[in-house]
Specification:
The chain is an alpha/beta fold. The chain is 54% helix and 14% strand. The chain contains ten helices and six strands, in the order βαβαβαβαβαβααααα. Strands 2-1-3-4-5-6 form a six-stranded parallel β-sheet, sandwiched between helices. Strand 4, helix 4 and strand 5 form a beta-alpha-beta unit.
Length: 208
């Protein structure tokens, strides 16, 4: 079971998140908190696999709480504040995921599973923001040789650059999600890249 601690200063939001999480057979909610300091204290007491963290909370905000918990447990930020500043501050503080509150239940549950498994996830709506800022700070995108990609692999690669999830790519290209995952793995291997973010940045350089 993936053990989740929910941190949000609105009780109604916490209740909704609990319903979503506990609707999944492999996820259980071990606690709820309404402020940042209590979140840090409860996370250290309960040792959850993932903390689902709001940003704006009393006593200590979610960014500071994430920073305090760095190295102790994984944090997924779930917020209405989708500014680049909040995204970069969250990642710098050690967040393993960043989602907006309009994220659908399936994506939220997927993020919790990915982070619990040691991966990370950034909201597709924020991916292009991250790529644009990276390009601004480092105008030259990573140079890759895409000549070894098949036409379908190149399609998948460019859609990664647009910030699409595997499920969205599967829908766009009318293929099974498992097939998309295989293509993504091959793209990373052929291009000599280590992560989906690197692939997105490189793809952004091709399309720009």
């Amino acid at each position: 079971m993936i053990r989740v601690l929910i941190a949000d200063d609105h009780a109604a939001v916490r209740s909704g998140l609990r319903l979503i999480c506990e609707g999944a057979a492999d996820i259980t909610v071990v606690g709820e908190t309404g402020d940042g300091q209590t979140t840090v204290d409860e996370a250290r007491r309960l040792a959850p696999d993932v903390v689902l963290m709001d940003i704006r909370m009393p006593r200590m905000d979610g960014i500071a709480a994430t920073r305090a918990l760095a190295g102790e447990c994984d944090v997924v930020i779930l917020t209405t504040y989708g500014s680049p500043q909040h995204l970069f501050e969250a990642l710098a503080a050690g967040a393993a995921g960043f989602l907006l509150k309009d994220t659908d239940a399936e994506t939220l549950l997927s993020a919790l599973r990915l982070v619990a498994a040691g991966d990370g996830l950034i909201s597709p709506a924020m991916t292009r923001t991250l790529i644009a800022e990276f390009s601004r700070l480092r105008p030259t995108a990573p140079t890759v040789d895409d000549s070894t990609l098949t036409p379908r692999e190149r399609q998948v690669w460019l859609l990664i650059g647009r910030g699409l999830t595997n499920a969205q790519i599967a829908s766009e290209l009318d293929m099974a999600e498992g097939t998309v995952k295989t293509h993504v793995s091959r793209v990373l291997s052929k291009l000599g890249l280590r992560s989906r973010v690197q692939a997105a940045i490189a793809a952004g350089g091709v399309e720009s």
